[in-house]
Design brief:
Layout (H helix, E strand, L loop, with lengths): L2 E9 L2 H12 L2 E4 L6 E5 L10 E5 L8 E5 L3 H10 L3 E9 L3 E7 L5 E7 L5
Parallel strand pairs: 1-4, 5-8
Antiparallel strand pairs: 1-5, 2-3, 3-4, 6-7, 7-8
Amino acid sequence: MPRVVHFELPADDPYRAARFYSSVFGWKIEKWAGPMDYWMIATGGAEEPGIDGAIMRREDPIRDLNVIVDVPSVDEFAAKVLASGGKIIAPKTPVPGVGYLAYCQDTEGTIFGIMQSDETAK
């Protein structure tokens, strides 16, 4: 069953947001080495309950907190989103070395991501 595996916090200034969340919660936050301004958040150890996330530069139309759901196929689940009355906000895009990501909107206007893991993505 697909599960929430990641969250994204939008920020106008990701560096400032990283300092804030690190100071408040003690989260370990490091800039991702990939091609976009993206800061990885470790919220705790692997033995603790919870999920990790990231801080991303705020962009339209993705403005609010996002959750990312792990799915076996972005294409298959994008079709399910559409068939269930949702929308595709940002189409399937490769995340180099990670997989494929698309952003969707549910019937209530809430945006969420679907991610297919694939380390060969380019």
